[in-house]
Design a protein that fits this description.
By secondary structure, this protein is of the alpha/beta class. The chain folds into 3 domains: 1-121, 3-Layer(aba) Sandwich (Rossmann fold); 124-143 and 168-229, no CATH class; 248-298, no CATH class. The protein has 11 helices and 12 strands. It has helices at residues 20-23, 25-34, 47-56, 60-63, 99-109, 127-136, 148-158, 177-187, 202-215, 252-266, 272-275, and strands spanning 14-18, 39-43, 67-69, 84-90, 110-121, 161-174, 224-236, 248-249, 282-284, 287-288, 291-292, 296-298. It has a 7-stranded mixed sheet with strand order 3-2-1-4-5-7-6, with helices on both faces. The longest helix is centred in the last third of the chain and has 15 residues, at 252-266. The protein is elongated, with a radius of gyration of 24 Å.
């Protein structure tokens, strides 16, 4: 995913690293090294633990003055105003129980023209283990994963523009089912809503290992094979568009953003009266004879 940063020409002044513990601190460090002059904000679940681990790492002496942490937040919480030019979310979207709300929070964090880059696991992940569980009559080993085309649709519905989705399938190999189980436990837990409600016993563990040894496909060298599908996506936060209606209400921040975007396109800075609008501003569009007349502002 870090290789896709080569496509981005805009150098962020401030970027968000979302739940870096989920995607691994190595990936987080690659972005930090690439944008060494930018301010990095650590956000999302487990942000305090991530900050603690980063501070203990070797990068502390080089980057400490650029690191900032915000208060603990849940994945769907929106922040006061956008400030990030890049939001980096590695392997975190598929564990959210409200993904569209999380996408909305990410959109709110980005400035206009800001880039979202994320990765997540796709529906073919652990497909061999899913088949074994189904044949044994056991509950699914993991919750269902979303297809990349559905993620693209959700990005559009949320308000992102120009989403580009890609995926790849990785094949992991293991010498034994026990070695595979150790790796799977390091990935995290089963988030399926119908997972077994209590702790499993030794008998189940023995049966599970035996089923994997006998049923999973193997490489020509005799190692167990396991598929992991990784989905990559990036999208841009576009210039906000107002829905044409007899009366459209927008927030103060959205009005300021519209004025800034208009000023950038016309190369004329907004006046102080434009940027000091009070809460309750209403943007009105009048229609007459099918033609949209010039919008006007009405202060309440």
């Amino acid at each position: 995913m870090a290789q896709r940063l080569d496509w981005i020409k805009r150098q962020p002044q401030q970027w968000v690293s979302w739940s870096p513990l989920l995607g691994g601190l190595k990936a987080h460090q690659l972005v930090a090294q690439r944008y060494a002059e930018a301010i990095a904000l650590i956000e999302g679940p487990q942000q305090h633990e991530a900050r603690h681990q980063i501070d203990r790492a070797w990068i502390k002496s080089m980057w400490h003055r650029w690191w900032h942490a915000l208060s603990e937040s849940k994945s769907g919480r929106a922040y006061a105003q956008p400030s990030a030019d890049l939001l980096w979310a590695n392997l975190s979207l598929h564990v959210s129980d409200e993904p569209q709300r999380l996408l909305r929070a990410w959109l709110d964090r980005l400035t206009t023209g800001g880039m979202l880059m994320f990765s997540c696991l796709g529906p073919d992940t652990l497909r061999e283990i899913r088949q074994v569980h189904q044949s044994q009559g056991w509950p699914a080993p993991a919750h269902p994963m979303t297809d990349m085309h559905d993620w693209g649709d959700m990005l559009i519905e949320t308000g992102f523009a120009e989403p580009i989705m890609d995926m790849e399938r990785l094949t992991l190999t293991y010498s034994s089912a026990q070695a595979m189980l150790v790796d799977l436990r390091a990935w995290g837990r089963n988030l399926h809503s119908e997972r077994f409600a209590s702790l499993r016993g030794r008998a189940y563990r023995t049966a599970w290992l035996a089923a994997m040894e006998s049923s999973l496909p193997r490489t020509p060298e005799g190692q167990l094979r396991l598929t992991v599908e990784v989905i990559y996506g990036h999208a841009i936060k576009p210039v906000p568009r107002l829905k044409v209606a007899e009366s459209t209400a927008i927030s103060l921040h959205e009005m300021k953003q519209l004025l800034r975007d208009r000023a950038s396109s016309t190369r004329h800075p907004p006046t102080s009266s434009d940027t000091n609008l009070r809460l309750g501003t209403v943007f009105q569009v009048r229609q007459h004879g099918g033609n949209i007349l010039k919008p006007r502002l009405q202060l309440i």
